[in-house]
Write a structure and sequence with these properties.
Layout: E1 12-17, E2 20-21, E3 33-44, H1 53-71, E4 76-89, H2 93-96, H3 114-120, E5 124-127, E6 130-133, E7 144-149, E8 159-165, E9 176-181, E10 184-185, E11 188-189, H4 192-203, H5 229-232, E12 255-258, E13 265-269, E14 284-288, E15 294-300, E16 318-324, E17 332-334, E18 355-358, E19 363-371, E20 374-381, E21 392-393, E22 410-413, E23 455-463, E24 469-470, E25 474-479, E26 485-486, E27 492-498, E28 508-509, E29 514-521, E30 540-544, E31 562-563, E32 565-572, E33 582-589, E34 596-604, E35 611-614, E36 620-623, E37 628-636, E38 646-660, E39 666-684, E40 687-695, E41 701-709, E42 714-722, E43 728-736, E44 739-745, E45 750-758, E46 767-768, E47 772-776, H6 793-804, H7 810-821, E48 826-828, E49 838-840
Parallel strand pairs: 3-4, 3-7, 7-9, 12-14, 26-33, 32-39
Antiparallel strand pairs: 1-2, 1-8, 5-6, 8-9, 10-11, 13-20, 14-15, 15-16, 16-17, 18-19, 19-20, 21-23, 22-23, 23-29, 24-28, 25-27, 25-30, 30-31, 33-37, 34-36, 34-38, 35-37, 38-39, 40-41, 41-44, 42-43, 42-45, 45-46, 45-47, 48-49
Helix pairs in contact: 6-7
């Protein structure tokens, strides 16, 4: 006789209907480490379904596990065990024939409940330690049980979750969190509701922190799905004594706090949907007030995994703002964006151009332009924060889209491929190009700065405020000394200032708009003989004067409004043999009057086989007052590495800080000083060759022709002319199939020196040609005494007679006769030695 262990479910049931939940009390459960879930598929007598277990495992179970791994930053290991067949139940009315608040006929607790059936048919084992996979060990006992409808079962009821259940008749047996969820939404497999119910089950907190008003927290995949900042962030990041949900899934380093005493500022928040390791920018913000509450801000995007529900008619992307009051009920309250119906609060997002205000706290939270997928948020404190005020700003570095030491609002335009200003529609004018976003922001530096040439440095000046910013003044600064390095907010050289006199748009920048301004910059570099090159990088920053009525200045003081990328070329010959190592250096500067010890941290995405050596492995450096130290950087790549790859090395410097706890104990921490990004671009060596010819008629012309090898289909080169009086002339020339040419009309005579400059591409290196020179001269043939550049018959005969008497060279006489016999008119050219430098004039 077979003995069956009877399984029953009794306890508090939590029903989720259209985003509503009946709360109950539950003990907190673990949300770190492994969480084992039993998945049981059910159908009903009047709504049968089938199950393809393999397909369901691959396309539903595994994505659900990956979702929890993603949202928990791998802090939670969701391990699902699927019963591989459908367990058939009685008619649905015995399970879901009810409405909220009405009496229900509840057969989930009946003798033939699905968990009991799974035990009876041997799918799972009922052990002394609890329910476990069939044949499993005690350490595999399930932590929760999730009942799921078979995919074909019609959607009628989304789900519920319950806690504290005894799955056996023995009330001393282990209790479980048990949930129910549909597996399909709009006719397709979807784990959204299940993720939501599992969120309740894992956390043990069966009420939403905002009282279910917002319905987006707690793994709420279908309202939409991504878990919120308030729930995930490490408690140490929050100011205030809040309850814990999934604390630790998001590190405190991805959270930033503003307070009235420290003033406002601008942040670009990365989407909450990203894993923390996918960005260096903050993903959440707490805005403190003096009223005993704060505001939590986060950036929401319709991207994986938040795109699980394809149609969300009442949702928008943007900034969610939650009012957070420790100990209140609820602790969290969603703030409504302008135009939202209070009855339709599922996801009230503030979008670009909208502002939330709290007049009682003199506080405003404004949403600025999108930075790729990042959301720009400005916090303003002050007596006029809730009135129309300007806010001049640049987007800071360490924010999307590159998440490194650069900002999309500062870039360089090099002459080596032609100034984009002169032909905005030419995509070859910026080596690294532009993005396809609404603002067509520049990628990286735009161009590598061209050493010893006049570059253009651009700054995008924004007004994130709500009033016109008048009489804006912009300053351009570069590190001293030049080069890529790490220093704090001192040690900068101001090389240019622009105002409305230079750019009329700076007279008044309207709210929510921007204007691009630029200045010229020549990075003067003394290269060792034979090592001259085009790219030379140095950190740039922008400082904007405070305008009238402005309250927030932290987004324009140059502290984070910087561009500090060294983009270096890892070069191989066209035969793809070996790559030349990158030998560069970065500087580390101590601007203080005391000695300081700096610690370096390095992260990179270098592929397998690459080597990186920074300072021979030294991790700390003691610098004396005002000392600037050069640290060598060496990068190598293995042979046959793919061409066109960009690999990044992030180097940051920290100093040790100390403070005293209230009990008098000294504690130590670290503060990031600054950092630099080194980008290694794998490219093929490119060579540029040029030749030049001077012709004197019909006008004075220097004709330069050249080639790039390997050839490029199309692009630009720059030809640099040095005139006899020392001036430089730059001309941008189009390249077609590797060849180019240009005719420069000149006035002055003398020696002209030319050189070709190619900025490079993502697959080919930058290059300089050898210098060539020509002499521009109007020297007539000796047989032309009246200097009219015509050889008449009489002049030719006279010169031949002089040859016969020995006074003239035979070669000159023969050339004079040739010019007379073939049209008389001739010109001087630098091509060839005398007498071949005099050639027939072109036919008119």
């Amino acid at each position: 006789m077979t003995t069956h262990t009877k399984v029953w479910m009794a306890g508090v049931l939590f029903l989720a209907v259209a985003g509503t939940i009946i709360p109950g009390v539950a003990q907190a459960q673990s949300y770190m480490g492994a969480y084992r879930v039993l998945l049981i598929i059910v159908d009903f007598k009047d709504e049968p379904g089938t199950l393809d277990a393999e397909d369901f495992q691959n396309n539903w179970v595994e994505p659900l596990e990956k979702y929890f791994d993603h949202m928990s930053s791998s802090q939670l290991n969701l391990r699902c065990t699927l019963v591989d067949h459908v367990i058939h139940l009685d008619e649905r009315k015995y399970y879901h024939h009810c409405t909220l608040g009405a009496d229900c006929v509840n057969e989930w607790t009946g003798a033939d409940n699905p968990i009991q059936q799974a035990v009876d048919d041997g799918s799972i084992d009922a052990t002394a330690d609890g329910l476990a996979p069939h044949g499993g060990s005690p350490d595999e006992v399930f932590d929760g049980i999730l009942l799921l409808t078979a995919p074909e079962v019609v959607y009628q009821y989304p789900g519920w979750s319950t806690s504290g259940q005894h799955p056996t008749a023995d009330i001393s047996s282990r209790t479980y969190a048990i949930g129910f969820a549909i597996t399909s939404f709009a006719g397709t497999l979807n784990y959204g509701v299940a993720a939501h119910e599992l969120g309740h089950m894992i956390s043990g907190m069966y009420t939403h922190p905002a009282g279910y008003i917002s319905a987006y927290e707690l793994m709420d995949s279908c309202y939409p799905c991504a878990l919120g900042i308030f729930t995930r962030v490490d408690r140490s990041a929050l100011t205030g004594d809040f309850l814990e949900w999934f604390s630790g899934w998001l590190p405190s380093s991805r959270f930033v706090t503003y307070a009235p005493l420290t003033g406002g500022g601008t942040e670009v928040l990365s989407p909450v949907e990203w894993r923390p390791e996918e960005t260096v920018a903050p993903q959440g913000m707490q805005v403190m007030t003096n009223g005993g509450y704060s505001y939590i801000c986060e950036c929401r995007r319709f991207i994986p995994p938040d795109d699980i529900i394809p149609e969300r008619p009442n949702t928008r992307e943007g900034i969610l703002i939650l009012k957070s009051t420790p100990g209140a009920d609820p602790e969290q309250e969603l703030m409504l964006a302008p135009g939202f119906d209070p009855l339709d609060r599922w996801e009230s997002s503030f979008i670009t151009g909208q502002t939330f205000t709290d007049p009682s706290q003199d506080l405003a939270i404004s949403v600025g332009p999108n930075a790729d997928l990042g959301c720009t948020v400005t916090v303003t404190y002050g007596p006029n924060a809730n009135t129309a005020i300007p806010d001049v700003a640049l987007l800071p570095w360490l924010t999307p889209p590159m998440d490194t030491y650069e900002t999309v609002d500062i870039w360089v335009d090099s002459p080596a491929n032609g100034f984009e200003r002169d032909n905005p529609g030419d995509p070859n004018r910026l080596r690294y190009g532009r993005r396809g976003d609404p603002e067509t922001t520049v990628i990286g530096n735009g161009d590598d700065p061209c050493a010893n040439e006049e570059n253009l440095v651009y700054a995008r000046i924004r007004n994130l405020g709500s009033a016109v910013a008048n009489n804006v003044v912009v300053h351009f600064e570069v590190t001293e000394p030049l080069g890529v390095g790490i220093r704090d907010d001192t040690g900068w050289t101001r090389f240019a200032t622009v105002s409305k006199n230079d750019f009329p748009a700076l007279a008044g920048i309207a709210p929510g708009t921007y204007t691009d301004v630029f200045t010229t910059w020549i990075p003067k570099v003394d290269f060792p003989p034979g090592e001259e090159r085009i790219p030379f990088h140095s950190c740039l920053r922008i400082v904007v004067d405070t305008v009238s009525g402005e309250l927030v200045t932290a987004n324009q003081d140059g502290n984070r409004e910087q561009e500090n990328i060294g983009w270096f070329e890892m070069i191989t010959e066209p035969e793809y043999l070996e790559f030349e190592p990158i030998h560069e250096k970065i500087f580390l500067a101590n601007e203080y009057e005391i000695a300081r010890e700096f610690f370096l941290s390095v992260t990179s995405d270098l592929p397998k086989g690459w080597t990186l050596d920074i300072g021979s492995g030294e991790a700390s450096y003691l610098l004396q007052p005002n000392e600037v130290l050069d640290i060598p950087v060496r990068l190598t790549a293995p042979p046959k590495t793919n061409i066109g790859g960009t690999h990044l090395v992030d180097i940051r410097a920290y100093v040790k800080t100390s403070s005293y706890r209230p009990d008098g104990v000294k504690q130590y921490d670290s503060r990031e000083v600054a950092g630099v990004l080194i980008a290694a671009q794998t490219v093929v060596r490119t060579r540029c060759t040029i030749s030049a010819v001077y012709t004197q008629s019909p006008r004075r012309i220097i004709h330069v022709t050249g080639k790039l090898d390997p050839p490029i289909t199309e692009g630009n080169v720059c030809i640099r002319y040095q005139t006899p009086n020392g001036y430089t002339i730059l001309r941008t020339v189009a390249v077609k199939n590797g060849e180019f040419g240009y005719e420069l009309g000149i006035e002055s005579l003398g020696v002209y020196k030319m050189r070709g400059l190619y900025a490079g591409s993502m697959t080919q290196s930058s290059t300089l040609s050898e210098e060539v020179s020509v002499t521009a001269s109007d020297s007539p043939h000796p047989a032309d005494p009246d200097l009219n550049f015509r050889i008449s018959m009489s002049e030719a005969i006279a010169y031949l007679a002089g040859w016969q008497t020995g006074s003239n060279l035979m070669s000159m006489a023969i050339r004079a006769a040739y010019l007379w016999q073939n049209g008389e008119a001739y010109i001087y050219t630098s091509e060839g030695e005398p007498p071949l430098c005099w050639i027939l004039a072109p036919q008119q």
